[in-house]
Specification:
- This protein has 222 residues and is of the alpha/beta class.
- The chain folds into 2 domains: 176 residues, Rossmann fold; 35 residues.
- Helix content is 40%, strand content 26%.
- It contains 6 helices and 8 strands, in the order H-E-E-E-E-H-H-H-E-H-E-E-E-H.
- The strands form 2 sheets. Strands 3, 4, 5, 6, 7 and 8 form a 6-stranded mixed beta sheet that branches.
- Helix 4 runs parallel beside helix 6.
- The chain is elongated.
- It starts with 7 loop residues before the first helix and ends with a helix.
């Protein structure tokens, strides 16, 4: 069976690719002949909440570490469900897609970001007949106290993004982002973090998504 041709947008990415994690300056005059930029936001890793009392259990060797991780995850899932915490990966996908349009004249997203549990690029890209797939996932998201200040908490967030050729799954580009917490003196207590239906935490998740877009965009165009 004949392999579908890449769009000019995908060809521009391939031509500009100096390594799997970096895109050099691309020919910005190229326009995609096929409106085929898809987005997939994969199921995120477990959201965790780490408190000093739970962390004390991790000092009991391997069984303690396993038990502590389970407590972190249960606390995080409970918080995520109770406050309907958004996954920043959706904002990241939208932001990276906007950067692709501005920098490489990529087409508009052909579909709303579709959820996916698959991790293999071949399985993700096979869902689409042609074009380029923007694959985004939250890899690390947790609330944790400061080691020097147990009364204040920070959000740590990490995500990854890939551009995949459809339907083959060939990786055209990939990048990741990592956002640490603010200094303890500027961070909220746990009670402040979850007050008003976790308004401060939701704001931090939104800010983490925006910063992730900034980091990924820098990796796209440098």
């Amino acid at each position: 069976m004949r392999r579908p041709a890449l769009s000019s947008f995908a060809l521009a990415l391939v031509a500009a690719c100096t390594s799997p994690t970096r895109l050099a300056d691309a020919d910005r005059t190229l326009r995609a002949r096929t409106p085929a930029l898809h987005a997939v936001v994969r199921t995120p890793e477990t959201f965790s909440v780490i408190t000093p009392s739970d962390a004390a259990v991790s000092g009991l060797g391997i069984p303690g570490a396993i038990a502590a991780n389970q407590m972190y995850e249960r606390a995080g899932e409970s918080m995520r469900t109770r406050h309907q915490l958004p996954d920043p990966a959706l904002r990241v996908a939208e932001g990276v897609a906007a950067a692709l349009r501005e920098e490489f004249r990529a087409p508009e997203l052909a579909l709303p970001p579709a959820p996916a549990a698959d991790a293999e690029p071949e399985a993700i890209a096979a869902r689409f007949e042609t074009g380029v797939v923007l694959d985004v996932r939250t890899n690390n998201s947790h609330v944790v106290y400061f080691s020097t200040d147990w009364t204040h908490y920070q959000l740590r967030y990490g995500a990854s993004a890939r551009l995949l050729e459809a339907p083959s799954g060939r990786v055209l580009w990939k990048g990741d982002c990592w956002i640490g917490g603010d200094p303890a003196r500027r961070s909220p207590t746990f009670e402040q973090l979850v007050a008003d239906d976790a308004a401060k935490l939701k704001a931090k998740l939104a800010a983490a998504g925006a910063e992730c877009v900034r980091q990924l965009r820098a990796r796209l165009v440098r």
